[in-house]
From TrEMBL:
Keywords carried by this UniProt record: DNA replication
Gene assigned in the entry: hda_1
Similarity comment text for this entry: Belongs to the DnaA family.
Keyword Membrane: no
Keyword Ligase: no
Protein name: DnaA-homolog protein hda
Domain of life: Bacteria
Location of the Chromosomal replication initiator protein DnaA ATPAse domain: 53-195
Organism ancestry: Bacteria, Pseudomonadati, Pseudomonadota, Gammaproteobacteria, Enterobacterales
InterPro entries: Chromosome_initiator_DnaA-like, DnaA_dom, Hda, P-loop_NTPase
Length: 236
């Protein structure tokens, strides 16, 4: 089981996963691990790599300029802050968290990224000490609703971040905080503080613009403005 997730490098943006119990290595190697480094018999450091192409410059904002501005503003502040945003699955929330990690990593700041949809690979102790980082991103918080250990671990981390006042905390979910069906009322209340945004879905026109943007960044020329999207891209 993994017990922590950190990064602080400008090259490839590695996410370090520290293990305190036995790891299922075949399962992990299937997930594109770049390397495995043995630090001590009790702890392994496993650098994972975030997608290099998921940055703010590769994200088409659509109707979300306020959210993008809020994220960038929080990253540029010298003090801690909390921001929650939500969207349906595939709406781009992980992209924006990856972008935030990339932004801070490029400044040689230490960041933590915790994808809760992958929580079977690690334990709640992953969050211990993360209040010392410049940025903590918790992705897909809806996945731990009803899991007391995880809910308490996130609640405790939130409180530690409030005490230190130096860490930016970004959390994403698939619905507003009050609709997450959390068992811990205090966590639901905490998540309802601060800035909360809905990541608005892209219109068909915006999807075309996003497609052209990503194609251009890859050195390709996308279809013209009069092009059409494939059915799976429009959700039809």
């Amino acid at each position: 089981m993994i017990a922590a997730s950190l990064t602080g490098s400008g090259q490839g943006r590695p996410i370090h996963l520290f293990l305190k119990t036995v790891l299922d290595f075949p399962r992990f190697f299937a997930c594109s691990l770049a390397e495995v480094l043995l630090n001590t018999p009790a702890q392994l450091s496993l650098p994972l790599y975030l997608p290099d192409d998921e940055t703010f410059s590769s994200f088409w904002p659509g109707e979300n300029p306020s959210l993008i501005a809020a994220l960038k503003g929080a990253l540029n502040q010298q003090h801690g802050s909390y921001l929650y945003f939500w969207s349906r699955e595939g709406g781009g929330r992980s992209h924006l968290l990856h972008a935030a990690c990339a932004e801070m990593s490029a400044r040689s700041e230490a960041v933590g990224y915790v994808p809760l949809d992958k929580r079977t690979w690690f334990v709640p102790e992953v969050l211990e000490g993360m209040e010392q980082l410049s940025l903590v991103c918790i992705d897909n918080i809806e996945c731990i609703a009803g899991e007391p250990e995880w809910e308490m671990a996130i609640f405790d981390l939130y409180n530690r971040i409030l005490e230190t006042g130096n860490t930016r905390l970004f959390i994403t979910g698939d619905r507003p905080p009050r609709q997450l069906n959390l068992q811990l009322p205090d966590l639901a209340s905490r998540l309802d503080w601060g800035q909360i945004y809905r990541l608005q879905p892209l219109s068909d026109e915006d999807k075309l613009q996003a497609l052209q943007l990503r194609a251009g960044l890859r050195g390709f020329e996308a279809a013209g403005r009069c092009g059409t999207l494939p059915a799976e891209a429009t959700g039809s």
